[in-house]
Design a protein that fits this description.
By secondary structure, the protein is of the alpha/beta class. The chain is about 25% helix and about 30% strand. The chain has nine helices and 14 strands. It is an enzyme of class 2 (transferase). It comes from Weissella viridescens. Methylates ribosomal protein L11.
Length: about 325
């Protein structure tokens, strides 16, 4: 099967937003080549083992490539994609140079390339992400393996925002919690929550395609067999409440409308873990949390990205 590739040259801070633009334009998969991944990469044993000089890829900024079936008139989409990428500046994201280039690519070539560089990666002290086609044995007694199938979307969970959220889960979860994972994506945070002892996990995402993708990864991890996942635009269709922990790894532009919805699903003492926050948005997130009476406990940082651990105060704190 033939495919068409549309590649956007951009910056690290805009990678997730550009990926969303391509998916919303109809891309059936996204591949990310981000120079910062080389800086943050750790092998499963905690040591860097790759000779990056021998690995093809960008050394500055990032390239995000979306893949469209041959029967899609991609040339008609380029102008809209380019306009939306350039419009990210209005959200405080540097997407320069924002060039958009189209070229054909064979499906077999694509599959070979992105699988070649997807290997087990130790993300935190306890969690290692492994692609489903790799055979991997834990190196430490307390190491947990999360198996993921990116399908035709490239990604290892090594983005700083995901690492921050996984670290926050390890810090907060003690066992027995009911967890709500808003915008679950690959399902990685839901799976990690189960490994950290959560008794119940509900994941949400914006449409059936995203939910189906998350469910596929949940099915690869027996620990997550009882995780529920449903379609919901933020919390619009969530009918459960009184969660002990709410996690959300999304851009600040999505977190800001989410925060006012949190009171409907939390209770006194609920802990709230947020990530996907670029450096120029951290103050706005803290202000939005305070406006809902939520207390910020810890600010986490990895590079230019931030995470927040907050909680809903109990009666003694009010």
């Amino acid at each position: 099967m033939s495919w068409q590739e549309v590649t956007v040259t951009t910056q690290n801070e805009a990678v997730e937003a550009v990926s969303n633009i391509l998916i919303e334009a109809g891309a059936e998969g996204v591949q990310i080549d981000d120079a910062e991944d080389r800086d943050h990469y750790q092998a499963s044993d905690g040591t860097v083992t790759i000779d990056w000089d021998s690995v093809p890829g960008v050394t500055q900024g990032a390239e995000v490539s979306g893949y469209f079936p041959a029967d899609v008139h991609v040339s008609e989409l380029l102008g809209g994609i380019r306009e939306r990428v350039q419009g990210l500046q209005a959200f405080g994201l540097n997407a320069t140079p924002g060039t958009v280039v189209q070229k054909p690519v064979e499906d077999a070539e694509w599959a070979t390339e992105w699988q070649k560089y997807y290997h087990p990666v130790r993300l935190t002290r306890y969690l290692t992400v492994v692609p489903k086609w790799e055979t991997y044995q834990p190196q430490m007694p307390d190491e947990h393996v999360i198996v993921l199938d990116p399908g035709m979307a490239f990604g290892t969970g090594t983005h700083p925002t995901t690492k921050l959220m996984l670290q926050a889960e390890e810090f907060v979860l003690r066992g027995g919690e009911r967890v709500l994972d808003v915008g679950t994506g690959s399902g990685i945070l839901s799976i990690a929550a189960k490994y950290m002892g959560a008794s119940e996990v509900l994941g949400t995402d914006v449409d059936e395609v995203a939910v189906k993708s998350a469910q596929g990864n949940l099915d690869l991890n027996p620990i997550a067999s009882d995780v529920k996942v449903q379609v919901s635009d933020l919390l619009a269709d969530v009918t459960e409440s009184d969660f002990d922990v709410v996690v959300a790894n999304m851009l600040a532009e999505v977190l800001l409308p989410l925060i006012p919805q949190l009171p409907a699903v939390i209770k006194p003492g609920t802990q709230i873990l947020l990530s996907g926050i670029y450096q120029d948005k951290i103050e706005a997130i803290q202000t939005a949390l305070r406006a809902q009476g939520l207390l910020v406990d810890q600010i986490m940082q990895l590079g230019e990205w931030y995470g927040v651990i907050a909680h809903n105060p109990t009666g003694e704190e009010v």
